[in-house]
Specification:
Length: 409
Protein backbone atom coordinates (compact mmCIF):
# COMPACT_ATOMS: atom_id res chain seq x y z
CA UNK A 1 0.00 0.00 0.00
CA UNK A 2 1.09 3.58 -0.44
CA UNK A 3 2.53 4.84 2.80
CA UNK A 4 1.07 7.99 4.40
CA UNK A 5 2.95 11.17 3.59
CA UNK A 6 2.94 14.81 4.69
CA UNK A 7 0.52 16.91 2.66
CA UNK A 8 2.05 19.86 0.86
CA UNK A 9 0.53 23.32 1.11
CA UNK A 10 -1.63 24.49 -1.78
CA UNK A 11 -0.17 27.14 -4.08
CA UNK A 12 -2.25 30.35 -3.81
CA UNK A 13 -2.68 30.76 -7.57
CA UNK A 14 -3.92 27.24 -8.02
CA UNK A 15 -6.36 27.46 -5.14
CA UNK A 16 -7.96 30.61 -6.58
CA UNK A 17 -8.55 28.98 -9.97
CA UNK A 18 -9.98 25.90 -8.29
CA UNK A 19 -12.50 27.91 -6.28
CA UNK A 20 -13.71 29.80 -9.33
CA UNK A 21 -14.07 26.59 -11.32
CA UNK A 22 -15.89 24.95 -8.43
CA UNK A 23 -18.43 27.75 -8.49
CA UNK A 24 -19.07 27.29 -12.22
CA UNK A 25 -19.35 23.51 -12.01
CA UNK A 26 -21.52 23.57 -8.90
CA UNK A 27 -23.98 25.99 -10.47
CA UNK A 28 -24.16 23.88 -13.63
CA UNK A 29 -24.86 20.74 -11.61
CA UNK A 30 -27.39 22.52 -9.41
CA UNK A 31 -29.62 23.48 -12.33
CA UNK A 32 -30.21 19.80 -13.09
CA UNK A 33 -32.01 19.34 -9.79
CA UNK A 34 -35.70 18.67 -9.39
CA UNK A 35 -37.79 21.78 -10.05
CA UNK A 36 -39.47 22.28 -6.68
CA UNK A 37 -41.20 25.56 -5.90
CA UNK A 38 -40.15 27.99 -3.19
CA UNK A 39 -43.11 27.07 -1.03
CA UNK A 40 -42.19 23.42 -1.32
CA UNK A 41 -38.61 24.18 -0.25
CA UNK A 42 -39.76 26.17 2.78
CA UNK A 43 -42.07 23.35 3.76
CA UNK A 44 -39.34 20.73 3.37
CA UNK A 45 -36.86 22.81 5.36
CA UNK A 46 -39.37 23.29 8.15
CA UNK A 47 -40.48 19.69 8.35
CA UNK A 48 -37.18 17.99 7.54
CA UNK A 49 -38.87 16.02 4.80
CA UNK A 50 -37.63 15.53 1.27
CA UNK A 51 -39.48 15.11 -2.02
CA UNK A 52 -42.24 12.55 -2.24
CA UNK A 53 -40.93 9.00 -2.64
CA UNK A 54 -41.89 6.79 -5.56
CA UNK A 55 -44.71 5.28 -3.56
CA UNK A 56 -45.57 4.87 0.09
CA UNK A 57 -42.76 2.88 1.70
CA UNK A 58 -43.91 2.92 5.31
CA UNK A 59 -41.54 4.06 8.03
CA UNK A 60 -38.97 1.38 7.26
CA UNK A 61 -38.50 0.57 10.93
CA UNK A 62 -40.22 -2.76 10.97
CA UNK A 63 -38.95 -5.98 9.50
CA UNK A 64 -39.29 -6.36 5.75
CA UNK A 65 -41.68 -8.99 4.51
CA UNK A 66 -39.04 -10.51 2.25
CA UNK A 67 -41.27 -10.31 -0.79
CA UNK A 68 -39.38 -11.11 -3.98
CA UNK A 69 -40.36 -9.45 -7.25
CA UNK A 70 -39.34 -11.33 -10.39
CA UNK A 71 -39.63 -9.29 -13.59
CA UNK A 72 -39.83 -11.05 -16.94
CA UNK A 73 -37.85 -14.25 -17.30
CA UNK A 74 -35.77 -13.79 -14.15
CA UNK A 75 -37.31 -16.80 -12.44
CA UNK A 76 -36.27 -19.01 -15.35
CA UNK A 77 -32.75 -17.60 -15.33
CA UNK A 78 -32.50 -18.23 -11.60
CA UNK A 79 -33.54 -21.83 -12.12
CA UNK A 80 -30.93 -22.21 -14.86
CA UNK A 81 -28.30 -21.33 -12.28
CA UNK A 82 -29.78 -23.72 -9.75
CA UNK A 83 -31.10 -20.89 -7.56
CA UNK A 84 -34.35 -21.52 -5.70
CA UNK A 85 -36.30 -18.25 -5.41
CA UNK A 86 -37.74 -19.00 -1.98
CA UNK A 87 -34.38 -20.12 -0.67
CA UNK A 88 -32.81 -16.94 -2.03
CA UNK A 89 -35.48 -14.84 -0.31
CA UNK A 90 -34.92 -16.62 2.99
CA UNK A 91 -31.19 -15.94 3.03
CA UNK A 92 -29.86 -18.23 0.32
CA UNK A 93 -28.18 -15.22 -1.27
CA UNK A 94 -25.72 -15.30 1.65
CA UNK A 95 -24.08 -18.41 0.18
CA UNK A 96 -20.80 -17.14 -1.26
CA UNK A 97 -19.30 -20.54 -2.05
CA UNK A 98 -16.79 -20.01 -4.85
CA UNK A 99 -18.40 -22.58 -7.15
CA UNK A 100 -21.82 -20.92 -6.76
CA UNK A 101 -20.64 -17.32 -7.17
CA UNK A 102 -21.85 -16.19 -10.60
CA UNK A 103 -19.13 -14.22 -12.39
CA UNK A 104 -19.67 -14.17 -16.17
CA UNK A 105 -21.19 -11.09 -17.80
CA UNK A 106 -24.31 -13.02 -18.86
CA UNK A 107 -24.90 -14.43 -15.37
CA UNK A 108 -26.06 -11.31 -13.51
CA UNK A 109 -29.13 -11.87 -11.31
CA UNK A 110 -30.52 -9.49 -8.69
CA UNK A 111 -34.08 -10.31 -7.54
CA UNK A 112 -35.83 -7.55 -5.61
CA UNK A 113 -36.23 -8.35 -1.92
CA UNK A 114 -38.59 -5.69 -0.59
CA UNK A 115 -37.70 -4.33 2.82
CA UNK A 116 -34.11 -5.65 2.79
CA UNK A 117 -32.46 -2.22 2.63
CA UNK A 118 -33.90 -0.48 5.70
CA UNK A 119 -32.31 2.70 7.11
CA UNK A 120 -30.31 0.89 9.77
CA UNK A 121 -28.94 -1.61 7.23
CA UNK A 122 -27.93 1.22 4.91
CA UNK A 123 -26.08 2.92 7.75
CA UNK A 124 -24.25 -0.31 8.61
CA UNK A 125 -22.81 -0.69 5.08
CA UNK A 126 -19.02 -0.34 4.87
CA UNK A 127 -17.07 1.42 2.15
CA UNK A 128 -16.03 -0.48 -0.97
CA UNK A 129 -12.47 0.82 -0.94
CA UNK A 130 -9.89 0.53 -3.70
CA UNK A 131 -6.28 1.56 -3.09
CA UNK A 132 -3.20 1.26 -5.26
CA UNK A 133 0.09 -0.38 -4.32
CA UNK A 134 3.55 1.12 -4.64
CA UNK A 135 4.13 -1.25 -7.55
CA UNK A 136 0.97 -0.05 -9.31
CA UNK A 137 1.73 3.61 -8.71
CA UNK A 138 5.33 3.41 -9.93
CA UNK A 139 4.57 1.42 -13.07
CA UNK A 140 3.78 4.55 -15.07
CA UNK A 141 6.79 6.64 -14.13
CA UNK A 142 7.62 8.89 -17.04
CA UNK A 143 3.97 8.93 -18.18
CA UNK A 144 2.12 9.87 -14.99
CA UNK A 145 2.03 13.53 -14.06
CA UNK A 146 3.30 14.60 -10.61
CA UNK A 147 0.95 13.86 -7.75
CA UNK A 148 -1.63 16.63 -7.40
CA UNK A 149 -1.87 18.95 -4.43
CA UNK A 150 -4.59 17.53 -2.11
CA UNK A 151 -7.94 19.30 -2.42
CA UNK A 152 -10.04 19.20 0.72
CA UNK A 153 -13.48 17.76 -0.02
CA UNK A 154 -16.33 20.23 0.39
CA UNK A 155 -19.75 19.23 1.73
CA UNK A 156 -22.55 19.56 -0.84
CA UNK A 157 -25.36 21.91 0.05
CA UNK A 158 -28.62 20.44 1.25
CA UNK A 159 -31.21 19.42 0.29
CA UNK A 160 -29.41 17.23 -2.22
CA UNK A 161 -32.48 16.92 -4.42
CA UNK A 162 -32.11 20.65 -5.11
CA UNK A 163 -28.33 20.83 -5.51
CA UNK A 164 -27.09 17.48 -6.83
CA UNK A 165 -30.19 15.50 -7.76
CA UNK A 166 -28.48 12.93 -10.05
CA UNK A 167 -26.06 11.78 -7.30
CA UNK A 168 -26.80 8.96 -4.87
CA UNK A 169 -25.49 5.86 -3.13
CA UNK A 170 -25.13 2.31 -4.45
CA UNK A 171 -25.64 -0.39 -1.82
CA UNK A 172 -24.80 -4.07 -2.30
CA UNK A 173 -23.92 -7.23 -0.44
CA UNK A 174 -20.46 -8.79 -0.62
CA UNK A 175 -19.12 -11.91 1.12
CA UNK A 176 -18.00 -9.81 4.12
CA UNK A 177 -21.27 -7.91 4.51
CA UNK A 178 -23.18 -4.85 3.26
CA UNK A 179 -21.11 -2.40 1.20
CA UNK A 180 -21.64 1.06 -0.23
CA UNK A 181 -20.45 3.06 -3.23
CA UNK A 182 -21.71 6.16 -5.04
CA UNK A 183 -23.47 6.55 -8.40
CA UNK A 184 -25.05 8.99 -10.83
CA UNK A 185 -28.29 9.04 -12.81
CA UNK A 186 -27.32 9.34 -16.49
CA UNK A 187 -29.40 10.00 -19.57
CA UNK A 188 -30.60 7.20 -21.84
CA UNK A 189 -29.95 8.42 -25.38
CA UNK A 190 -32.39 5.92 -26.88
CA UNK A 191 -35.17 6.74 -24.40
CA UNK A 192 -34.94 10.48 -23.77
CA UNK A 193 -36.55 11.76 -20.61
CA UNK A 194 -37.22 8.27 -19.26
CA UNK A 195 -33.82 6.97 -18.19
CA UNK A 196 -33.40 4.16 -15.70
CA UNK A 197 -29.61 4.10 -16.05
CA UNK A 198 -27.08 4.65 -13.27
CA UNK A 199 -23.31 5.06 -13.76
CA UNK A 200 -20.92 3.68 -11.14
CA UNK A 201 -17.64 1.76 -10.82
CA UNK A 202 -17.11 -1.84 -11.90
CA UNK A 203 -15.79 -2.74 -8.46
CA UNK A 204 -19.15 -1.68 -6.99
CA UNK A 205 -20.98 -4.46 -8.86
CA UNK A 206 -18.37 -7.19 -9.52
CA UNK A 207 -15.39 -8.47 -7.52
CA UNK A 208 -13.15 -8.75 -10.59
CA UNK A 209 -10.73 -11.57 -11.39
CA UNK A 210 -11.09 -13.43 -8.08
CA UNK A 211 -14.87 -13.23 -7.63
CA UNK A 212 -18.22 -12.60 -9.24
CA UNK A 213 -21.30 -10.39 -9.21
CA UNK A 214 -22.26 -8.78 -5.93
CA UNK A 215 -25.86 -9.16 -4.74
CA UNK A 216 -28.84 -7.07 -3.70
CA UNK A 217 -27.54 -4.07 -5.66
CA UNK A 218 -29.71 -1.00 -5.11
CA UNK A 219 -29.39 2.71 -5.95
CA UNK A 220 -30.68 5.38 -3.55
CA UNK A 221 -30.72 8.88 -5.13
CA UNK A 222 -30.29 11.91 -2.83
CA UNK A 223 -29.55 9.62 0.12
CA UNK A 224 -30.04 11.42 3.47
CA UNK A 225 -31.41 14.40 1.57
CA UNK A 226 -30.89 16.93 4.36
CA UNK A 227 -27.46 15.72 5.44
CA UNK A 228 -28.56 14.84 8.95
CA UNK A 229 -26.07 13.59 11.52
CA UNK A 230 -25.97 10.06 12.91
CA UNK A 231 -27.64 11.24 16.11
CA UNK A 232 -30.39 13.00 14.17
CA UNK A 233 -30.98 9.82 12.16
CA UNK A 234 -31.30 7.54 15.18
CA UNK A 235 -35.03 7.14 14.51
CA UNK A 236 -34.97 8.01 10.82
CA UNK A 237 -37.86 6.99 8.63
CA UNK A 238 -37.30 5.36 5.28
CA UNK A 239 -38.33 8.58 3.54
CA UNK A 240 -35.67 10.62 5.33
CA UNK A 241 -32.96 8.25 4.15
CA UNK A 242 -34.33 7.48 0.70
CA UNK A 243 -36.57 10.35 -0.47
CA UNK A 244 -37.02 8.82 -3.93
CA UNK A 245 -37.17 5.21 -2.77
CA UNK A 246 -34.92 2.24 -3.50
CA UNK A 247 -34.05 1.38 -7.11
CA UNK A 248 -32.94 -2.20 -7.67
CA UNK A 249 -30.60 -3.12 -10.52
CA UNK A 250 -32.42 -5.58 -12.77
CA UNK A 251 -29.32 -5.66 -14.97
CA UNK A 252 -25.73 -4.52 -14.62
CA UNK A 253 -22.85 -4.40 -17.07
CA UNK A 254 -19.18 -3.79 -16.46
CA UNK A 255 -16.16 -4.13 -18.71
CA UNK A 256 -14.69 -7.49 -19.65
CA UNK A 257 -11.34 -6.06 -18.57
CA UNK A 258 -12.64 -5.45 -15.06
CA UNK A 259 -14.18 -8.92 -14.83
CA UNK A 260 -10.93 -10.53 -16.00
CA UNK A 261 -8.31 -8.37 -14.29
CA UNK A 262 -9.88 -6.28 -11.54
CA UNK A 263 -8.51 -6.75 -8.02
CA UNK A 264 -8.59 -5.34 -4.49
CA UNK A 265 -6.01 -2.73 -5.52
CA UNK A 266 -7.54 -2.01 -8.92
CA UNK A 267 -5.15 -4.26 -10.83
CA UNK A 268 -5.15 -4.46 -14.61
CA UNK A 269 -8.87 -3.65 -14.59
CA UNK A 270 -8.57 -0.23 -12.95
CA UNK A 271 -8.42 1.68 -16.24
CA UNK A 272 -11.71 -0.01 -17.19
CA UNK A 273 -13.35 0.25 -13.77
CA UNK A 274 -16.81 1.47 -14.78
CA UNK A 275 -20.31 -0.01 -14.84
CA UNK A 276 -23.86 0.85 -15.87
CA UNK A 277 -26.95 -0.29 -13.97
CA UNK A 278 -30.48 -0.50 -15.30
CA UNK A 279 -32.74 -0.03 -12.30
CA UNK A 280 -36.38 -0.45 -11.35
CA UNK A 281 -38.20 1.01 -8.34
CA UNK A 282 -38.89 -1.24 -5.39
CA UNK A 283 -42.33 0.37 -5.55
CA UNK A 284 -43.66 2.71 -8.21
CA UNK A 285 -43.99 3.02 -11.96
CA UNK A 286 -42.26 6.17 -13.26
CA UNK A 287 -38.72 6.09 -14.62
CA UNK A 288 -35.79 7.11 -12.43
CA UNK A 289 -35.17 10.26 -14.46
CA UNK A 290 -38.83 11.32 -14.21
CA UNK A 291 -38.86 10.61 -10.48
CA UNK A 292 -35.62 12.38 -9.64
CA UNK A 293 -36.14 15.11 -12.21
CA UNK A 294 -32.55 14.98 -13.46
CA UNK A 295 -30.03 12.94 -15.44
CA UNK A 296 -26.62 13.80 -16.88
CA UNK A 297 -25.29 13.11 -20.36
CA UNK A 298 -22.14 10.99 -20.61
CA UNK A 299 -19.19 12.42 -22.53
CA UNK A 300 -17.19 9.65 -24.23
CA UNK A 301 -14.95 12.09 -26.08
CA UNK A 302 -13.52 13.97 -23.12
CA UNK A 303 -10.03 15.24 -23.96
CA UNK A 304 -6.71 14.17 -22.52
CA UNK A 305 -6.00 15.42 -19.02
CA UNK A 306 -3.94 18.39 -20.21
CA UNK A 307 -6.86 19.75 -22.25
CA UNK A 308 -9.70 18.72 -19.95
CA UNK A 309 -9.98 21.88 -17.85
CA UNK A 310 -11.55 21.54 -14.43
CA UNK A 311 -13.36 18.40 -13.26
CA UNK A 312 -15.39 17.71 -10.15
CA UNK A 313 -15.86 14.40 -8.32
CA UNK A 314 -19.04 13.90 -6.27
CA UNK A 315 -19.73 11.08 -3.82
CA UNK A 316 -20.47 9.85 -0.30
CA UNK A 317 -17.13 9.07 1.41
CA UNK A 318 -17.66 6.53 4.18
CA UNK A 319 -14.21 5.74 5.61
CA UNK A 320 -12.79 7.94 8.39
CA UNK A 321 -12.87 10.87 8.88
CA UNK A 322 -16.20 10.62 7.02
CA UNK A 323 -19.14 8.38 7.93
CA UNK A 324 -21.03 8.01 4.64
CA UNK A 325 -23.99 10.14 5.67
CA UNK A 326 -23.15 13.29 3.72
CA UNK A 327 -22.37 14.08 0.09
CA UNK A 328 -19.04 15.75 -0.72
CA UNK A 329 -17.27 17.06 -3.81
CA UNK A 330 -13.77 17.95 -4.99
CA UNK A 331 -12.89 20.25 -7.90
CA UNK A 332 -9.46 20.18 -9.55
CA UNK A 333 -7.61 20.21 -12.84
CA UNK A 334 -6.84 16.56 -13.73
CA UNK A 335 -3.45 15.07 -14.48
CA UNK A 336 -2.49 11.68 -15.88
CA UNK A 337 -2.00 8.45 -13.94
CA UNK A 338 -0.49 5.45 -15.72
CA UNK A 339 -0.51 2.04 -14.05
CA UNK A 340 1.12 0.24 -16.99
CA UNK A 341 2.42 1.08 -20.47
CA UNK A 342 -0.15 -1.39 -21.83
CA UNK A 343 -3.13 0.31 -20.16
CA UNK A 344 -4.89 3.60 -20.97
CA UNK A 345 -3.94 6.49 -18.72
CA UNK A 346 -6.45 7.51 -16.06
CA UNK A 347 -7.52 10.95 -14.86
CA UNK A 348 -6.20 11.96 -11.44
CA UNK A 349 -7.25 14.88 -9.23
CA UNK A 350 -6.38 16.04 -5.76
CA UNK A 351 -9.13 15.02 -3.31
CA UNK A 352 -9.44 13.95 0.31
CA UNK A 353 -12.55 11.80 -0.14
CA UNK A 354 -12.19 8.23 1.12
CA UNK A 355 -13.74 4.86 0.34
CA UNK A 356 -17.49 4.99 -0.27
CA UNK A 357 -16.98 7.73 -2.84
CA UNK A 358 -16.03 4.96 -5.30
CA UNK A 359 -18.25 4.96 -8.36
CA UNK A 360 -19.22 8.60 -7.85
CA UNK A 361 -19.37 10.62 -11.04
CA UNK A 362 -16.74 13.03 -12.32
CA UNK A 363 -18.27 16.00 -14.12
CA UNK A 364 -17.11 18.80 -16.39
CA UNK A 365 -19.01 21.66 -18.00
CA UNK A 366 -19.19 21.58 -21.82
CA UNK A 367 -20.90 24.55 -23.47
CA UNK A 368 -22.81 25.26 -20.28
CA UNK A 369 -23.95 21.65 -19.78
CA UNK A 370 -22.64 19.40 -17.03
CA UNK A 371 -21.59 16.00 -18.36
CA UNK A 372 -20.24 12.86 -16.71
CA UNK A 373 -16.70 12.12 -17.91
CA UNK A 374 -15.42 9.53 -15.42
CA UNK A 375 -16.02 7.89 -12.04
CA UNK A 376 -13.95 7.39 -8.92
CA UNK A 377 -11.96 4.16 -9.09
CA UNK A 378 -8.75 4.14 -7.03
CA UNK A 379 -6.74 6.29 -4.63
CA UNK A 380 -3.81 6.08 -2.19
CA UNK A 381 -3.92 4.97 1.40
CA UNK A 382 -3.46 8.51 2.71
CA UNK A 383 -6.47 9.81 0.71
CA UNK A 384 -4.78 12.74 -1.04
CA UNK A 385 -6.01 12.05 -4.58
CA UNK A 386 -8.50 10.08 -6.64
CA UNK A 387 -8.19 8.48 -10.08
CA UNK A 388 -10.86 7.51 -12.59
CA UNK A 389 -10.91 5.90 -16.05
CA UNK A 390 -11.03 7.87 -19.28
CA UNK A 391 -14.26 6.87 -21.02
CA UNK A 392 -13.68 5.95 -24.64
CA UNK A 393 -15.18 3.63 -27.29
CA UNK A 394 -15.32 0.57 -25.02
CA UNK A 395 -17.24 2.46 -22.33
CA UNK A 396 -19.58 3.92 -24.95
CA UNK A 397 -20.25 0.45 -26.39
CA UNK A 398 -21.20 -0.82 -22.92
CA UNK A 399 -23.48 2.18 -22.36
CA UNK A 400 -25.17 1.76 -25.75
CA UNK A 401 -25.71 -1.94 -25.07
CA UNK A 402 -27.44 -1.14 -21.79
CA UNK A 403 -29.57 1.54 -23.45
CA UNK A 404 -30.64 -0.56 -26.44
CA UNK A 405 -31.07 -3.89 -24.63
CA UNK A 406 -32.48 -2.86 -21.27
CA UNK A 407 -33.54 0.78 -21.62
CA UNK A 408 -37.19 1.81 -21.98
CA UNK A 409 -38.45 -0.80 -19.53
Amino acid sequence: MLSPRTRTASRPGRRRRTVLAASTLTVALTVTATACGADDDRHNAATGSGPSPVASQGDGKGEGQGKVSLPGDLADRLKEHGIDVDAWKNGGWKNWDKKDWLREAKDFVNPVIEGLWKPERMQSAKEADKTVTVKDASAGQGVSDPEPVPVRAEAERTPYHRNAAPVGKVFFDAPDGPKVCSGTVVKDVNHPGKSNLVWTAGHCVHAGGDGGWYRNIVFVPAYNDYGKSEAQLADASFREMAPYGNWWADWASTSNEWIAGGSDTGGDGAAYDYAVLHVQPEQGAKSLEETVGAALAVDFSAPAAAQAGQMGAWGYPAAPPYNGLRMFKCIDRPGRLSLSPSLPTMYRIGCTMTGGSSGGGWFRVVNGETKLVSNTSIGPLDNTWLAGPQLGPSAEALYQYMSRTHGGR
